[in-house]
Write a structure and sequence with these properties.
By secondary structure, the chain is α/β, with parallel strands linked by helices. Helix content is 30%, strand content 17%. The strands form 2 sheets. It has a 3-stranded parallel β-sheet with strand order 1-2-5, covered by helices on one side. A two-stranded antiparallel sheet has the order 3-4. The protein starts with 15 loop residues before the first strand and ends in a 13-residue tail after the last strand.
């Protein structure tokens, strides 16, 4: 039985993508951003390599949610001490820091791999629609 030949890309070319967050719900936007950051939209995607592109998310202050998530969704964190669990409602976090809501959603949609933080560093989040990043026109 003959094994398949795997060709690894010699160079990784990174493009810039702009995603308007205000058009669809947060989950759909976060999965689209995660695919761009990971590089799954590319033809020569290889799971163990960092092949993703840069993503600029605009209009983050206009995030949309379906259902009653704004009232019901809660974020939890733990200090490590007994009884040290902290919770924050989504509506409170949206008021304080809407960028953090999108970051948490995208971070959880990327596989738990050793270069996940490096992948997340290519995500640029902007309130409003004005930014200084150069977007590739395809």
């Amino acid at each position: 039985m003959q094994s398949q030949k795997i060709t690894l890309p010699k160079t990784v070319t990174r493009k810039w993508h702009q995603v308007d967050v205000s058009k669809t719900t947060m989950g759909r936007v976060a999965s689209e951003i995660a695919n761009f950051l990971r590089g799954k939209h590319k033809r020569d995607f290889t799971p163990h390599m960092d092949m993703g592109d840069f993503v600029v998310a605009v209009n983050v202050d206009k995030l949309k949610f379906s259902g009653r998530k704004i009232d019901q969704k809660k974020y939890f964190r733990h200090s490590g001490y007994l009884g040290g669990i902290k919770e924050m409602a989504l509506k409170d976090l949206l008021k304080r820091d809407p960028e953090e809501v999108l970051k948490k959603a995208v971070f959880s949609m990327i596989d738990d791999i050793k270069f996940r933080k490096k992948i997340m560093s290519r995500l640029k989040i902007v309130k409003g629609d004005k930014h200084n990043y150069s977007i590739d026109k395809n």
